[in-house]
Every structure is written in structure tokens, then in C-alpha cells.
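step=encode ok
step=design start
structure_in=
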């Protein structure tokens, strides 16, 4: 079973986008682009990123 972790290798800030991309199996650039779009659309992306950075465990 796959688990969602913050990435240790594919990270720019906290590794959230890299971890989500690894979990889904897509390029992390697409996840980062989606995050920017959500941030520009009212700031909800920033809140979601901060919550994920606090809640998601580090990759073992």
C-alpha cells in the first residue's frame, strides 16, 4: 500500500508538492503549477500547502 509522504529528494520548500507528485505518479512541476493556480485564485492553495506541510510525515 502506498502512503503519502513529504519528499526528501524532490523539494523546493517543504517537499509537499514532490510527495504528492510521487504518490500520484506525475511530474512535480504539474503539482507546483496547480498550487500556484490555487494560490492566485483566492489564496486557498497557500493554506492547503501550509496544512499539508504540518500534517504530512517525512519520507522514511
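sequence_out=
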Amino acid at each position: 500500500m502506498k502512503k503519502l509522504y513529504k519528499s526528501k529528494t524532490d523539494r523546493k520548500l517543504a517537499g509537499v508538492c514532490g510527495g504528492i507528485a510521487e504518490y500520484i505518479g506525475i511530474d512535480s512541476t504539474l503539482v507546483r503549477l496547480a498550487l500556484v493556480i490555487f494560490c492566485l485564485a483566492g489564496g486557498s492553495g497557500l493554506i492547503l500547502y501550509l496544512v499539508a506541510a504540518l500534517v504530512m510525515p517525512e519520507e522514511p
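step=design ok
step=annotate ok -> The chain has one domain: 1-60.
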